[in-house]
Amino acid sequence: MNFVSRNQANTVIRQIPLMLLGASAIFSLPFLAFSLIHIVRGTDAEGKYFSLVFGIFIGWLLLEFVATREKLEIDPRTKTLTHLVSGVFRRRRQSIDFSQMTEVRIEMRKDVRGKSFDYLYITGNGRRCLLNTPGKTLNHRATAKLLGESTGLPFEITKGELITRQSP
Length: 168
Prior knowledge:
This protein is α+β, with helices and mostly antiparallel strands. The chain has helices at residues 18-41, 48-66, 140-151, and strands at residues 2-7, 10-15, 69-75, 80-86, 91-97, 103-110, 116-124, 127-130, 155-159.
């Protein structure tokens, strides 16, 4: 889900996977509830400490690797676009000068199994910068449209080549 906020001159597009965050809570909550109920009550249940550790581990694992959040910050004064990807701990930061870029492009690609992925690029000066995590279930087309409107760059959807896995 995209959340757009325009504060002062900056535009911030946040992509928060609410469905994946809910799924991580559903999968880890039973283990945490079982263990916390038995720990607080002081009952002698087998595996209550294991369930606590396992529930925390599953919650962390899903939040870190499945439900990553993406944030695009557009600053028209300095003509920069900053892309942040974060989980619980992991961060990836990418900064792009969009004054040299020419277009926002979505490439639709299929892998060998026939599953389709959208790749969101910002292109210019013979350079293509990937701005999304293609396997996530977010609406990349809406993000590309918002990005095109905010930066003033044209928006295009193209069909890409087939994605094949190469062995080393």
